[in-house]
Amino acid sequence: MRNRLLRVGLVTLMLSVVMSCGGGGGGGVDGSASATGAMGSTTGVGAMPGTDGSPGANGAGNGIGGIGADDGSTATAASGGGGDDGSGVGSGGTGVSTADATGVGSVDGAGSIIVNGLRYDTRTATGSVEDAPNGLQLGMSAKVTGPVNTDFTQGVARWVESAADVRGPAASVNLARGTFVILGTTVTTDEATVWADVSGLASIQAGQTLQVWGLPGVPGVLRATRIEQRPVSSPILTGTVQNLDAGRRTFTLGQAVVDYSRAMPDGMLDGRPLVNGTLVRVRADMSGPGNSLLATRVQWWYPVPTNDNGIAQLAGIVTDFAGLGSLRVLGFPVDASAAKVTAGPNGAVGNGVKVEVGGAVSGGVLRATKLKIRNVPGTGGPASFDLSGNVGAFRSASDFRVRGQPIDASAATFVNGQAAGLRNGVRVRVQGAQVVDGVLAAQTVTFQ
User: Fold this and answer.
1) H or E element: which one contains 293?
2) Domains of the chain: which residue ranges?
3) Residue 55 — very low, low, confident or very high, per pLDDT cuts 50/70/90?
4) Calpha distance 288→290 (Å, rounded)
5) More confident residue, 421 or 53
6) Distance CA 445, CA 448 (A)
7) Biggest alpha carbon–alpha carbon distance for the chain
8) What angle do CA 81, 85, 90 make, to 5 degrees?
9) Whole-angstrom Cα distance, residue 392 to residue 400?
10) At CB < 8 A and 24+ separation, what contacts does 425-429 make?
């Protein structure tokens, strides 16, 4: 199922702060002690859908080409073609290393590819995307690989990938805690969760099939970064392997028992075997009694290389916290004792806190030089989505698109202009904190 090219809009939409996960006020469950889409081709990245919702053209060649035009037309990717505004750095740009770095997080913007504050040139990138026939959208989890400079400000994307993390019928909706359950895994939400085609947790009905992208926390818990409705489809489940029985070929993910005797392994890195503690994504034909799954595919979930001197930047939920010198993010050991910590407004690092970390790997541990707090359970944190591009499909200040993303700027503050200046083709930067029913509520619109 690798015949669909990743769309440029995906890459741009997904990566333009692809790791800058936003924040919010979800509960502390995920860190405290307490129709299958086609996979992207590796030959290129195509154009995103046009801003009027029309499909974009497939990519061609070996690179990311033009993005869907902002007047609603489409563009076709060409090898080495320019992305967005061409503002990324080239492979020979000043200060960019030759070694690849790994970044994992969620899509928070478009108009340039920014991962945890790191801007990528995507003109030669390739990639794959699954479970998203319309391409990458805000809130989708993603991984980007490519060389970066030493201060995590510039880089060159070589590879981009994304896939859904959970899919199945919703159960046990808890409005007070901001959670629901799918296939025995607790899904938590916060202000940065993108509600693609629903108005929020209160609109979820028991038994409704949902597809979720998110960041794994403690075993059996996933922090949702994007939620959308789906027709009844084959199940997907992401989590930490526990209770591995190599003889019976079974393990558990949360409350689900997975039989992987017929499964195809996918994405294993550095020759690592399947062991307890491995983060995986399981695909199955159907679920059985008691949330059991007969797996058809077991994917290592966005694995991070453990080789010494490898560079990584991760956005995720803190677990196993024993001080800044010993914690985990996305299951990866982190030593942040020497990191520059950017504190959120309401708390410090601890289990359940959403953070961004970046640094070099040594001895299998990420030695972080930076750590940014994005969300503290129960108190929230900064949520931010950021889009730059030309206005398209304009109807009013409350109904237009940028990079294909619907925008409502009726309550926004305007900079360098007024709402009356909005029209098709005008270049703007839109910033907002929430996406509900697929619409980004703009807080600030800056004319560029």
Assistant:
1) strand 293-300
2) 4-162, 236-300, 311-375, 385-447
3) very low
4) 6
5) 421
6) 9
7) 68
8) 60
9) 6
10) 425/70, 425/71, 425/390, 425/391, 425/392, 426/390, 426/391, 427/388, 427/389, 427/390, 427/391, 428/388, 428/389, 428/390, 428/391, 428/402, 429/111, 429/386, 429/387, 429/388
Q: Which of 229, 227, 248 shows the shortest CA–CA distance to 292? A: 248
- For the stretch 287-314, pLDDT in tens is 778 789 999 999 999 999 998 988 999 9
Q: How many CA atoms lie within 13 A of 440 on its CB side?
A: 31
Hey, which CATH number is domain 311-375, 3.90.930, 2.60.120, 3.30.420, 2.40.50?
A: 2.40.50
Amino acid in the structure at residue 113 = I
280 close to 310: Cβ distance less than 8 angstroms: no
What's the pLDDT tens digit per position in 396-419? 999 999 989 999 999 999 999 999
CATH number assigned to the domain covering 236-300: 2.40.50
Distance CA 215, CA 194 (A): 13
Three-state DSSP class for 94? Answer: coil
DSSP states of 336-392: -TTSEEE--TT--S-TT-EEEEEEEEETTEEEEEEEEEEEBTTTB----EEEEEEEE
pLDDT band at 178; cut points 50, 70, 90: very high
How confident is the prediction for the chain on average, in pLDDT?
Answer: 79
Are the beta carbons of 9 and 47 closer than 8 angstroms?
A: yes
Q: Which residue has the tokens 């995103």?
A: 48
With residue 12 as reference, give the H or E element that holds it: helix 8-15
Q: Look up residue 184 and give its two tokens.
A: 């025995």
Cβ within 8 Å of residue 31, ≥6 positions away: 217, 218, 221, 317, 318, 319, 321, 350, 351, 352, 353, 377
H-helix or E-strand spanning residue 167: strand 166-174
